[in-house]
Design a protein that fits this description.
Helix 3 packs parallel to helix 4. The chain is of the alpha/beta class. It has a single domain, classed as NAD(P)-binding Rossmann-like Domain (Rossmann fold, 3-Layer(aba) Sandwich), CATH 3.40.50.720.
Length: 258
């Protein structure tokens, strides 16, 4: 087991990529804390799924856009497990809107959850890790849009670009404490956030035609990469960014080569 006896906090861990990561970590021996904000039933279901397979998991409610709520969450996890070895900043939201129709309130909301949330959780957990003196791993779930903007998502694109730079900055400044910081940049993963769009036959067809590996990604595809980054196998990896997109980012501008 690659994460035996490690303690992992996964924000937004009740559904989608977060749940897949939480379950993968538990099956690799980690004691998992599944954070949720609103989807309590989903978090409890994820927790019970892990426990039914003899894994260890608790659920913790917190709004990552609130510094006080995040600190309370970290304190709760440390109290339950004795410390935190791994933090996965997965919580995030998106609401596709054209730039000219984007409101200031929606731009602010995206930034507060997608960027401020990463900052609050990372700083609170890093302080705990430093005090404990055992190092640790922080993994940020960013997006391919941090590197290549998608239309009608200026606010989301900007938030993920910020997450990528935060990743590198934290990797630089936390390395003296043996805290590694990396990121995964997924694209076209079938989660609740994109499932509605994928129900459009034309949208799904277009995505499939422009993904060289020929399929939509699944949360488990990201979870496997997350296990590597947070295990001792990646003990000399920090400040790294891994794109998990089925090859989407390497295709020519007009789609799959003929």
């Amino acid at each position: 087991m690659r994460l035996k006896e490690k303690v992992a906090l996964v924000t937004g861990g009740s559904r989608g990529i977060g749940r897949a990561i939480a379950e993968a970590f538990a099956m690799e021996g980690a004691r998992v804390a599944i954070n949720f904000s609103q989807h309590k039933d989903d978090a409890l279901a994820a927790m019970e799924s892990i426990r039914s397979r003899n894994g260890k998991a608790i659920s913790v409610q917190a709004d990552v856009s609130s510094e006080g709520s995040v600190q309370a969450m970290v304190d709760q996890v440390v109290g339950a497990y004795g410390g935190i070895d791994i933090l996965v900043n997965n919580a995030g939201v998106n609401s596709p809107t054209s730039f000219m129709k984007l409101t200031a309130s929606e731009f602010k909301r995206i930034m507060e959850i997608n960027v401020h949330g990463v900052f609050y959780a990372s700083q609170a957990v890093a302080k705990s890790m430093i005090a404990r003196g055992r190092g640790g791993s922080i993994l940020n779930i960013s997006s391919l849009v941090a590197q290549r903007p998608f239309a009608n998502m200026a606010h989301y694109n900007a938030s993920k670009g910020a997450v990528s730079m935060l990743t590198q900055s934290m990797a630089l400044e936390l390395s003296p404490y043996r805290i590694r910081v990396n990121e995964i940049c997924p694209a076209s993963v079938e989660t609740d956030m994109v499932r509605v769009a994928l129900q459009d036959p034309n949208n799904r067809k277009h995505r499939l035609e422009t993904i060289p590996l020929g399929r939509i990604g699944q949360p488990e595809d990201v979870a496997g990469a997350a296990v590597f980054f947070c295990s001792d196998e990646a003990s000399w990896v920090t400040g790294a960014s891994l794109v998990t997109d089925g090859g989407l980012s390497v295709i020519p501008p007009f789609g799959r080569p003929s």
